[in-house]
Amino acid sequence: MSGMSKTSFNPRFPEMNRRALLAGLSATLAAAVLPATRTDADAAELSFSRVDLRGGHDADLAGLLPDAADDQSRRFQAAIIEAAAAGRILRLPPGSFVISNIDLPDGARIIGVPGATRLIYGGRGHGMLAEGARRIELSGFTFDGANQRLGGHVTGLIHLRGVADAVIEDMEIAGSAGYGLTLEASGGRINRSEISGAGLAGIYAVESRSLAITDNHVRDCANGGILVHRWSTGEDGTIIARNRVARISARSGGTGQNGNGINIFRAGNVMVTGNHVSDCAFSAIRANQASNIQITSNQAIRSGETAVYAEFSFEGAVIASNLIDGGAVGISVANFNEGGRLAAVQGNIIRNLSDRGPYPAQHAGFGIGIAIEADAAVSGNVIEGAPKWGVLMGWGPFLRAVNFTGNTIRACGAGVAVSVVEGAGAALVSDNMFDAVPGGAIVGCRWNDVVTGDLAKSGAGRFPHLTVERNRIA
């Protein structure tokens, strides 16, 4: 067929095939009759030749001994420097190695046997540190921090600073006293790795440059799962996709600084898509001062506070096609008073919310499906089981240009609570379905207090900033 090739015996050229066969047999026979009494030099030459052919540098050739009781940092460091200088991969065998204070030179490439090669941090400063390298590759081994203290010059068990292309794949990083993995002013990818038991967060990426964090499992960390931050507000461009994040605590306390599965802070143009985030003390996904954020097609299960949050001074948030099951608030797009504006909230399912949060209720409290304030289109969402309100639209005078159309709200305390405070801006509530909302389908609020009857029935004539039309109450 066109575009395909096949290899087969060709009867028109029997001599060519016979010659190839004889050449192969000759090579096999020559290998079989090699002298059995090679010198040690000959054997060493042959061994290194094989290493050259596969582009590697075996750890046993550098004097590293698996499962030795003593610290092997000096030998490990020498092996990395030698392999990197030669442009080779350092291949680690199965077994355990105790190491500390390993500095990764430019071009360091270390590969272990997944599930069998284990590095254990000895606790005397840092685990692995790279600074200013063009490329670093780590793959296929476990690095156990043993909960040993890290020095003040690093924050992560593996700390990569100013690395243009960092490749972290098929790794297991466990028991760090700080972050499991820190990438500072770096790019590259973190892929198919498991990070657990961190004293701070699993992954901390700050000032990133086209970073991809994909297909990882981050679990059982004290204060955070995946953190993408910047020191000052700016474009970041990190992609966070298809990760599984579970059981994230907020051991250091606070009201949202800690306890988030995925946290974006000051980082613009970030995509958070296709992640499964469960059992976080605060938010499954929290974006703070993060403009042009996309939060799409994620699952947020059993969040302790707001499941998905876009807050403070941001412009541009797309929150679409997420499934939220459990939490004190489903989705909050807030802080118009701080410049938070411009959002599309579409096609999300929000259910099984609670009116209890991780701290005493403040402002509007808990038990709300969607909270929205300014310059937003909210459509095609389904909200079920919000004990207080299905939707909170505006907060006092902080309401402007919100279009709430084509949504379904059922089994909630009330449907839509919209601000009727002086100075509140325009809002449209149309073509929505309400079912089992005993507190009313659409009610006017002054901050936290309901001050009208059901506007879906009586109309919004006395509130010129509101348009309420064609809604259906089942």
What is the CATH level 1 assignment of the domain at 49-222?
Mainly Beta
Reported by name, the CATH topology of the domain at 49-222 is: Pectate Lyase C-like
- The DSSP helix count reads 4
The counted number of beta strands is: 46
Global shape: elongated
Mean pLDDT: 90
Q: Label the structural class.
A: mainly beta
- The parts where pLDDT drops under 50 for at least 5 residues are 1-54
Radius of gyration: 29 Å
Instruction: Describe the largest sheet.
Output: 16 strands, parallel
What is the CATH superfamily label of the domain at 49-222? Single-stranded right-handed beta-helix, Pectin lyase-like
Q: Percentage of helical residues?
A: 10-25%
Query: In order across it, which strands form the biggest sheet?
Result: 1-2-5-8-11-14-17-20-23-26-29-32-35-38-41-45
State which percent range the strand residues make up.
35-45%
Distance between the termini: 61 Å
At CATH level 2, the architecture of the domain at 49-222 is: 3 Solenoid
Q: What is the gist of this entry?
A:
The chain is mainly beta and 474 residues long. Mean pLDDT is 90; it is low at 1-54.
